[in-house]
Specification:
The complex is a heterodimer of chains A (about 300) and B (about 325). Chain A has about 300 residues and is an all-alpha fold. Helix content of chain A is about 75%, strand content about 0%. Chain B has a single domain, classed as P-loop containing nucleotide triphosphate hydrolases (Rossmann fold, 3-Layer(aba) Sandwich), CATH 3.40.50. Chain B is built from 11 helices and 13 strands. In chain B, strand 8, helix 7 and strand 9 form a beta-alpha-beta unit. In chain B, helix 3 packs across helix 4 and helix 6 packs parallel to helix 7. The mean pLDDT of chain B is about 90. The chains are: A mainly alpha (about 300), B alpha/beta (about 325). Chains A and B meet through helix 8 and helix 9 of A and helix 2 and helix 3 of B. Chain B: Belongs to the ABC transporter superfamily.
Chain lengths: ~300, ~325
């Protein structure tokens, strides 16, 4: 045993510096790798946000099989009941309807609008922006004028117009809100397309005989989709807040369909006596919007390699 | 002399850009022939029109650039300037393809190497996916990529600059084109990789009996890798000859100046490097005479008044009133 360890030590008599250096370097590399990992990691805030979003989404999807009271069923024995009383976990509203059930059913409206509207807006904006940025020339000019004119109409007017004409239809709420996202999406797409079309791989594709359609779908589109997805992530919470405001004003889906904005509105006369009626949907909306923003930020940082600020 | 049709014949090619100040004549009446199996180097400094010339040949000009109606670009006897875009697309990448300067940006970052080669083979050669993939691996092997089967599923960012340029070459060679245009293929690469890439290009051209236009600003590359040289200045060819006579007996002062500006190892240490004074002429309002006249040591009144035509004995031609002896 003693022999062996001596034999081991024997070949490197000048060891002190020789052994210390590699160990130092290994330790330094490990530290650097750990720091790098940490910068890349999304952190607990992301996971908490995601968990909340998953909870809200799952509850909304499975609302009918959760064994909740129907959202429009009144419990006349318990009007404005505070949370935790009379078998109502989050209490009841002025008509005795279960707040938990209504918040969950309201999530359906908020999430549907929150996701559909940005998808419609970014989808249409993408087509316009790609056409303008790729073909340039008169196409670019016409699309530019259309978008500038569209921006010159106040968004609220468009929303009011749609609600007067097609009041209460969920799809029309999504569509009218989606239309408002078109100009910014089109501009972002156009800018990204311009910088992408100037790249050498687009010229290389042309030199290989690719058609315009092929270049747009295979070369340009995959290279501009990330900033656009980040843009969708920013638009989702905006759409949820705007839908909430419309509901509050009674311009979104009509009663008795529950929506968060509508619930806040219904409870505003009882803020002193039964504050939970307004505050619970407000808190749920706040947490949902905050979670979308935090999760979106974390995703953008991750996509841009831990440096932040992708767009 | 055989009467074989040349792979490429360019007649009086003129390309101009519309600018705020007027028409910028980037290529001004260029004509040349390129025989099968030959490598023609086009040399010139930045802005001499060499890249625009190469793009004009394949009709890949940027917006605002136009080739004159009288120009002819005959690829295997077929005039590309008269072809509709749809037919031109079937030729690009198939009969003539191009390699670009910067392999960092000339490959699509979102597609795997394999997908980019397979796409060309499926589009032009009508191969089935599986056959195209096998052929792609073969191509990667032939351009010297180790483990070609594995490389197919990798993305451009996973490869070094030299490897990417090899991939770009594999894509360009995929359909066995007759003409390969290499636009400064090694400018963005390390010096050690440059030689490998140029050797690879020359070997492929020889083996496949293709023709190549090698665009460069480096006279050293010309000496080692081309058969013929065309020197461009201000949108015109000012001297054209096979490599040996050009280096042995330079006639045009501009070519001489280019050669003199190469640093020589044999030159005394701390000596002054010969540079060409002045700048290339304004191509919107070019001088009436020889375009090199303002920078030329030998210029006379005649050079200022008349532009010399490109003339010679069929082997060595030059555009100069006072050629060097």
């Amino acid at each position: 045993m003693a022999d062996l360890s001596r034999a081991e030590r024997a070949p490197r008599p000048a060891a002190p510096s020789g052994t210390a250096a590699p160990m130092d370097r290994a330790a330094r590399n490990a530290r650097a790798a750990a720091a790098h990992q940490k910068a890349r990691r999304v952190g607990p805030v992301f996971w908490i946000s995601l968990a909340w979003l998953a909870l809200v989404t799952l509850a909304a999807v499975f609302a009918d099989v959760l064994g909740l009271a129907a959202p429009d069923q009144s419990d006349w024995m318990a009007l404005k009941a505070p949370p935790g009383t009379g078998g109502h976990l989050l209490g009841t509203d002025p008509l005795g309807r279960d707040v938990l059930s209504r918040v969950i059913h309201g999530a359906r409206v908020s999430l549907t609008v929150g996701i559909t509207a940005p998808v419609i807006g970014v989808g249409l904006g993408l087509i316009l922006g790609l056409a303008a940025g790729y073909y340039r020339g008169w196409i670019d000019e016409v699309i530019g004028i259309v978008i500038d004119s569209w921006l010159a109409i106040p968004g609220l007017v468009i929303l009011l117009l749609f609600s007067v004409l097609y009041g209460g239809s969920l799809f029309m709420v999504c569509l009218s809100l989606g239309l408002l996202f078109i100009p910014s999406a089109a501009r972002i797409t156009r800018a990204a397309t311009l910088s992408c079309t100037g790249r050498e791989y687009v010229l290389a594709a042309r030199a290989l005989g690719a058609s315009d359609f092929r270049i747009i779908t295979r070369e340009v589109f995959p290279n501009i989709i990330w900033p656009l997805l980040a843009f969708v992530m920013i638009d989702i919470p905006i759409a949820i807040v705007v839908e909430g405001s419309l509901s509050f004003l009674g311009l979104s889906v009509q009663a008795p369909t529950p929506s968060w904005g509508g619930m806040i509105s219904e409870g505003r006369e009882y803020l002193e006596a039964a504050p939970h009626i307004s505050l619970i949907p407000t808190a749920v909306m706040f947490l949902t919007v905050l979670s979308f923003n935090l999760a979106g930020d974390a995703m953008r940082r991750r996509v841009s390699g831990g440096r932040g600020g992708a767009i | 002399m055989t009467l074989q049709t040349p792979v490429l014949e360019v007649q009086d090619l003129r390309t101009a850009f519309v600018t705020a100040r007027g028409m910028l004549q980037a290529v001004d009446g260029v004509s040349f022939r390129l025989e099968r199996g030959q490598i023609l180097a086009i040399v010139g400094e930045s802005g001499s029109g060499k890249s625009v010339l190469s793009r004009s040949i394949l009709g890949l000009l940027p917006r605002g650039a136009e080739t004159s109606a009288t120009a002819q670009v005959l690829l295997n006897g077929q005039d590309l300037t008269r072809l509709p875009e749809r037919q031109l697309r079937r030729l690009r990448g198939r009969r003539a393809s191009m390699i670009f300067q910067d392999p960092m940006t000339s490959l699509n970052p979102t597609l795997s190497i394999g997908a980019q080669i397979v796409e060309v083979l499926v589009f032009h050669m009508g191969l089935a996916k599986a056959a195209a993939r096998a052929r792609a691996a073969e191509l990667l092997r032939s351009v010297g990529l180790p483990e070609p089967g594995l490389q197919l599923d990798r993305y451009p960012h996973q490869l070094s600059g030299g490897m990417r340029q090899r991939v770009a070459i594999a894509i360009a060679l995929a359909c066995e084109p007759d003409l390969l245009i290499a636009d400064e293929p090694t400018t963005a690469l390390d010096v050690t990789v440059q030689a490998e890439i140029l050797d690879l290009l020359r070997r492929e051209v020889r083996e496949r009996q293709m023709s190549m236009i090698l665009i460069t600003h480096d006279m050293g590359i010309v000496a080692g890798h081309a058969d013929e040289v065309a020197v461009m200045y201000a949108g015109r060819i000012v001297e054209r000859a096979p490599v040996r006579p050009l280096f042995a007996q330079t006639r045009m002062p501009y070519t001489r100046a280019l050669l003199d500006s190469i640093p020589q190892l044999s030159a005394p240490a701390h000596g002054r490097l010969e540079a060409i004074g002045g700048r290339p002429p304004d191509l919107v309002e070019p001088p009436p005479g020889c375009s090199f006249e303002p920078r030329c040591r030998f210029a006379t009144a005649r050079c200022r008044a008349d532009a010399p035509p490109l003339q010679g004995d069929g082997v060595h031609s030059f555009a100069c009133w006072h050629p060097l002896r």
